[in-house]
Specification:
Low-confidence stretches: 1-39, 112-124, 231-239
Shape: elongated
Number of strands: 6
Order of helices and strands: HHHHHHHHEEEEEE
Oligomer: single chain
Helix content: 55-70%
Structural class: alpha+beta
Radius of gyration: 37 Å
């Protein structure tokens, strides 16, 4: 190798090294490590607040849909089990009737036929009794046959109902499976919301808490139901009519759960979702109510917001959230994942209506 060739190679290597270093120093796209919280620095605190609320609302809607599908499938499973038991009893009754008809037919053939009756008429001392006994035997036979035919018809109808119930259960199980598939989406949304909250800086967290506090204050001022303008009233009443009887027991139970975490699908005793809290509270008061918020809205007695009393359930959004009114324009409820059972202004969410259990 001559000197000129060696010099060119050295200069070429130096140029390549310089180029590589220059590329390394260029700013490039940044990638967060898996699971790294997103600081959301490019969003206003209002945007973050709205995004979180949206994610949790979607999760709650899906949660209530799953709960509803699960309840319906469970009820249908019990109905089908009951039909199977009734079908078995019907088959046993039909077998017994078949046996009785056979015995009666053989008995009539051996001693209760027309020939025997004729002999009794000719030779017997009481021919009128012979005629009466023969007529009774034939009527009893006809009645037994009629009962047997009726039982066959009832058995066929019961069989039809059982088949229909089994088909309905298959549909409900498919629906529950679809909602269970949505469970993964629910958990992803919750995880996403939790990741966002975990990524907030201390100042953002403080501002978010302040924003929620201001919203709660504004919601309190919007309340137009009983107790508006007051800020007192906890437990079994206050700020208006006090709860009594079962309503008081339901309110006291719900209040005793304050601080326990929200867990979707939970009905206690260590955690609850929104309708899990209200249904368990009223069950503890001796008045079981439907499990889900939509079923509570559809199945319980509706009352006006102006006449709401402690123990009543206030239904929110599209019947996908529920809280228990405690008086003073406030509810106790299980708000969302990441939060605990707490007291909140009754007007803090869009109200659909009010229902009253126990009536």
């Amino acid at each position: 190798m001559n000197v000129s060739t060696g010099g060119r190679r050295l200069r070429s290597r130096a140029a390549i090294a310089a180029f590589v270093c220059a590329i390394a120093l260029l700013p490039g796209p940044s990638f967060a490590a898996p699971g790294t919280p997103d600081p959301r620095n490019d969003q206003s605190i209002e945007d973050i607040h709205n995004e979180l609320n949206g994610l949790y609302r979607e999760a709650e809607v899906a949660t209530e849909a799953y709960n509803t599908a699960d309840v319906k499938a469970t009820v249908q499973e019990k109905r089908l089990a009951s039909l199977h038991k009734e079908l078995a009893r019907s088959e046993n009754r039909l077998d017994d009737l078949h046996t009785l008809v056979g015995v009666a037919a053989r008995t009539q053939y051996r001693g209760g036929n027309l020939d025997a009756t004729g002999i009794q008429l000719l030779l017997g001392d009481h021919p009128d009794q012979a005629l009466e006994q023969a007529a009774q035997a034939r009527q009893a036979m006809r009645n037994l046959v009629n009962v047997s035919e009726t039982q066959k018809s009832a058995r066929a109808e019961l069989d039809r109902q059982t088949d229909a119930a089994a088909e309905k259960l298959r549909e409900l199980k498919d629906s529950r499976a679809d909602k269970a598939g949505a469970k993964a989406k629910i958990e992803k949304k919750i995880a996403e919301a939790e990741r966002i909250e975990a990524g907030l800086k201390q100042e953002q967290t403080r501002k978010l808490a302040q924003l929620e506090k201001e919203e709660a204050k504004e919601a309190t001022s919007r309340w137009t139901g009983p107790g508006s303008g007051t800020t007192t009233g906890t437990g079994s009443g206050g700020g208006g009519t006090k709860a009594t009887g079962a309503a008081a027991r339901a309110v006291d139970f719900a209040m005793a759960q304050i601080g326990k975490p929200y867990v979707w699908g939970a009905v206690g005793p260590s955690s609850y979702d929104c309708s899990g809290l209200t249904s368990t509270a009223w069950a503890a008061a001796g008045h079981p109510i439907p499990r889900t918020s939509q079923a509570q809205w559809q199945g319980l007695t509706r009352v006006s917001l102006a006449s709401v009393q402690p123990g009543d359930l206030i239904i929110y959004y599209d019947a996908t959230h529920v809280g228990m009114y405690i008086g003073g324009g406030r509810i106790v409820h299980a708000p969302r994942p990441g939060r605990t059972v707490t007291i909140a202004p009754a007007a803090s969410m869009p109200i659909v209506g009010v229902v009253r259990p126990g009536v």
